[in-house]
């Protein structure tokens, strides 16, 4: 059946309350949902698909054919081995951000202009999604964004990961992308609308994040889990390699500044009047840069020890 779908146009109409309640439910129970009617034009999304695909063909494909995962797979096949490649991903990936714009692919016509326009629109959508989370959690408007900015205007990190997952002749031997939760805040994914592969873990079962034309998939990262004191959880997800079809994935991450201090929102702590149960902080207070240092070492391991490790760092 795939993950839930939200008509985002309804947040501005008569069905606002019901739509916000749905989003709150999906944030609590799923950690993943798809937005349709999100306000980003189909023309822009079509151009993004076009330039991303052309960029891979023109500037990336030859390198992938000589990449480490391809070499390791060929070695296994040459040895007729039953082993599986565990520590690399069958993925071509590069990052776009305001900080590295001199490194953006430059040979593909229209790529830079289109992706800059797309990132601007997607960042606005990210702000709207975070404001809805503020409202659903009972936090002041702008609380999540301001926390991610670290008290300094517009210093949160907004990066866009452009990935391609080429067809894999032996998908049983590799991971396209190993299971992990996302380190940061809110992820806005424009995934392939034809080739499947992305899955999230729901109630112990791997569930497809179904391809849907021009939708934007939202998922919550580790820092939203901390800020919400566990009301919203980051969710394990992975990409499964496919034997045919090349999957395109453009994931944008709205993350805290490395200097931002992250902790459960104080508005969510303290005595609960209705059932008289005190709500205590379930997560430590830490600097996001310290968390990222831990995450880079432990990305593909369970997330709970990461919180303990960054707690130790913050207390030392």
UniProtKB/TrEMBL annotation:
Residues covered by the Fe2OG dioxygenase domain: 156-256
Statement: the UniProt record of this protein carries the keyword Mitochondrion: no
The enzyme's E.C. designation: 1.14.17.4
Entry keyword set: Ethylene biosynthesis, Iron, Metal-binding, Oxidoreductase, Vitamin C
SUPFAM superfamilies the record matches: Clavaminate synthase-like
Pathway: Alkene biosynthesis; ethylene biosynthesis via S-adenosyl-L-methionine; ethylene from S-adenosyl-L-methionine: step 2/2
Recorded GO MF terms: 1-aminocyclopropane-1-carboxylate oxidase activity; 2-oxoglutarate-dependent dioxygenase activity; L-ascorbic acid binding; metal ion binding
Name assigned to this protein: aminocyclopropanecarboxylate oxidase
């Amino acid at each position: 059946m795939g993950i839930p779908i939200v008509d985002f146009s309804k947040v501005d109409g008569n069905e606002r309350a019901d739509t916000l309640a749905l989003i709150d439910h999906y944030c609590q129970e799923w950690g993943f949902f798809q937005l349709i009617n999100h306000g980003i034009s189909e023309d822009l999304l079509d151009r993004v698909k076009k330039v991303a695909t052309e960029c891979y063909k023109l500037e990336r494909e030859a390198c992938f054919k000589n990449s480490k995962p391809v070499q390791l797979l060929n070695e296994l096949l040459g040895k007729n081995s039953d082993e599986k490649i565990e520590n690399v991903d069958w993925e071509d990936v590069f990052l776009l951000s305001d900080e590295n714009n001199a490194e953006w692919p430059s040979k593909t016509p229209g790529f830079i202009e289109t992706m800059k326009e797309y990132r601007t629109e997607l960042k606005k959508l990210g702000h709207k999604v975070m404001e809805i989370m503020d409202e659903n959690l009972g936090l002041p408007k702008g609380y999540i964004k301001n926390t991610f900015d670290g008290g300094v205007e517009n210093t949160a990190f907004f990066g866009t990961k452009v990935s391609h997952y080429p067809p894999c002749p032996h998908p049983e031997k590799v991971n396209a992308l190993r299971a992990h939760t996302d380190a940061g805040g809110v992820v806005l994914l424009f995934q392939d609308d034809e080739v499947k592969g992305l899955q999230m873990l729901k109630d112990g079962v791997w569930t497809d994040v179904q391809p849907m034309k021009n939708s934007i998939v939202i998922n919550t990262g580790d820092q939203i889990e901390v800020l919400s004191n566990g009301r919203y959880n980051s969710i394990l997800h992975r990409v499964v390699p496919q034997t045919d079809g090349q999957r395109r994935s453009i994931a944008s991450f709205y993350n805290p500044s490395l200097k931002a201090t992250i902790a459960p929102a104080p508005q969510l702590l303290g005595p609960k009047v209705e059932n008289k149960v005190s709500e205590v902080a379930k997560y430590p207070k830490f600097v996001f840069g310290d968390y990222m240092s831990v995450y880079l070492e432990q990305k593909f391991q369970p997330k709970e020890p990461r919180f303990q490790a960054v707690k130790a760092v913050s207390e030392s």
